[in-house]
Amino acid sequence: MTDTAAVGRSRRRARWPWVVLVVVTLLAVFVVAAEVIARAVVPATVRGLVIDALDLPADQQLDVETQGVLLPQLLGGTLDELRLSSDQVTIGGVTGAAQVTATQVPLRGGALAGAEGTVIIDQSQFAGLLERVELPITEITLDEPDVTVHGGISVLGAEIPLALTMTPGADDGDLMLTPIAVEVAGAEVDLQRLAGMFGDIGAALAGPQRVCIADQLPTGITLTGLRIDGTSVVAEISADGRIAVDEALLEPGVCP
């Protein structure tokens, strides 16, 4: 009996590592499968929510990416980082390629920690924004890092050609254009001389041009930077984390 019991215990000890291995393997397969499912479900869910919130077309191209291992984040109720991108999206009448990264995204509702991104627009879209500037603009040329607006000033019935080169930027949510050079009738002229040459119009041309674009964006999104990259304009934006819970922040802003 003693020998038989000893053999039984020996066999159980021999089987024990295999049992553990099988259990661990099954758990690993379950975790991997759950992670795969999570990566398939989460982006689709987020895409639907974003499209609904921004009132975008149902077939809007919008890619959603998550970072890190998802299961611990899902169990904790917060996604560490979420990246949204689209080759072409229209928000507030402005169309461009957008990329936004949101951090600490709560899955059960609540404000985000924050979100930042870029919107790339072409020359025609940028020209549309500059229609609000009180400048005699007939043509715009992008020449990294500056932009040159071409037009003319009427003096004594004669149209005098003018080309004003400015560096774009952002200030307190507004688009800012800072003049750095000007040509009048093809000749370079000191900016400070414009007032003497054309009076109030010249003085206005020599100073910074501020363009409010708040009404082109949701209230919860702010322009933080603007630069010329080749033949495109790159707008840097930031979003108020409360935009995820406050519908008022999705409404267009207001310009003075």
Summarize the amount of helix as a percent range: 25-40%
Global mean pLDDT: 84
H/I helix tally: 4
Rounded to an integer in angstroms, the radius of gyration calculated over CA atoms is: 29 Å
Could you give the order of the helices and strands?
Answer: HEHEEEHEEEEEHEEE
Structural class: alpha+beta
Instruction: Report the span from N to C terminus.
Output: 97 Å
Spans of at least 5 consecutive residues whose pLDDT stays below 50 are none
Q: Could you give a short account of the major beta sheet?
A: 6 strands, antiparallel
Strand content: 35-45%
By DSSP, the count of extended strands is 12
Shape: elongated
Oligomer: single chain
List the strand order in the largest sheet: 1-2-3-4-12-11
Describe the structure.
A six-stranded antiparallel beta sheet has the order 1-2-3-4-12-11. Strands 5, 6, 7, 8, 9 and 10 form a six-stranded antiparallel beta sheet that branches. It starts with a helix and ends in a 17-residue tail after the last strand. The protein has 256 residues and is α+β, with helices and mostly antiparallel strands. The mean pLDDT is 84. The protein is elongated and about 95 Å long. The protein contains four helices and twelve strands, in the order H-E-H-E-E-E-H-E-E-E-E-E-H-E-E-E.
Quick tags:
256 residues, alpha+beta, 6-stranded antiparallel sheet, 12 strands, 41% strand, elongated
Short description:
The protein is α+β, with helices and mostly antiparallel strands and 256 residues long. Helices cover 31% and strands 41% of the residues. Strand 2 (78-91) and strand 3 form a beta hairpin.
